[in-house]
Amino acid sequence: MSLTKILYITPSMQSFVKSDIKMLSEYFRVQVINQPWGNKKLAPLNFIRQFFDMLFNISGSRFILVNFGGYWAFWATIFGKVFFKKVFIITHGTDCASIPEINYGSLRISLLKRICDFSYRRAAAIFPVSESLIETELLFDPEITSKKQGLHHHFPKLETPTEVIYNGLDENQWTLPTHNKRIRNSFLAVMSPSQFTLKGGDLILEIAKKYPNCSFYFAGVQPSAIAFENTDNVHFLGFLSPEELKTWYQKCEFYFQLSSFEGFGCALCEAMLCGAIPIGAHTNHIPNIVGDSGFIIRKKSLEAAIPIIDKALNAPNKDLLSINSRLHIQANYSLARRKKNLIESLERFTGESYTH
């Protein structure tokens, strides 16, 4: 029996996007439409190219699934309306936020916000990856004055059904080390140079100065990309492949997720599956991901961080916390759970069954 065709629109191909495409391919013939929207200069060309990609591929498609709200959702919404195809939008974070103080959030841009509003209102359903993307209050970073964020805050008249479907992680890809030889008192964080302040890199550098006998590692960043005071205990690993990243997850005792805003936290979950003990910010969904297996810093300040770092370093049960980190992600954020919830939601909104 031939699989039902669907269109999957995405502006990027991160690991969680590839994971969704692979998962959906078990049930559908997935036609991916992906333009390089990360290059702003190509935006007009991408807009035209997507129009023709949609035009040539819409025939025979059962529905349209859009990854992230953004410019690429406009044609998906138009074609869905014209060709009577239901449109579903997965939101991840920047598409639900406007935080000018840290230059974050698609909704800061007037035109982009209007396009998101247009597409969100016309979608059959929106699938945020955490509850915080529907509505949240940011209390971690004192620099942020735009405390209230989320779909319902920015679009108070939005009536489109929203169903939270958490991201799912592959426990077979992110594994515990075969030999537990972690670097003693070591901390890892993953971010790009443009995310350095957003992900708390500035606070981590402050923490590093106070703990000269600990080791701090940044994946995804080269030292030339940021301005910082060089210290012997801070190491920049640059861009890492997934396999190299897994090795570092397995090497380090602790993992930092000190974001001022974080729609979900896939890297945090990956690290926890590899047994790294999480230290997270008290923002968005991060405390739920950390659970009882790690530590939460309530304010983005050195004064709030030091007691938590001391507690983590002196924890008598690090081995148990490491195991519990993996178990917590397996129980709550598995790939199987995301697959089940996403397929069930699609079946409910389309009125069809895809699990034959």
Describe the protein in words.
By secondary structure, this protein is of the alpha/beta class. The protein has two domains: 4-168 and 335-350, Glycogen Phosphorylase B (Rossmann fold); 183-332, Rossmann fold, CATH 3.40.50.2000. Helix content is 36%, strand content 18%. It is built from twelve helices and 13 strands. The chain has helices spanning 15-24, 43-57, 72-82, 110-122, 151-154, 201-210, 242-251, 266-273, 286-290, 302-313, 318-332, 335-350, and strands at 4-9, 28-33, 61-67, 86-91, 125-128, 136-137, 148-149, 183-190, 215-219, 234-238, 252-257, 277-281, 295-297. The chain has a six-stranded parallel β-sheet, with helices on both faces. Helix 1 (15-24) links the parallel strand 1 and strand 2 (28-33). The longest helix is centred in the C-terminal third of the chain and has 16 residues, at 335-350. It is globular, with a radius of gyration of 21 Å.
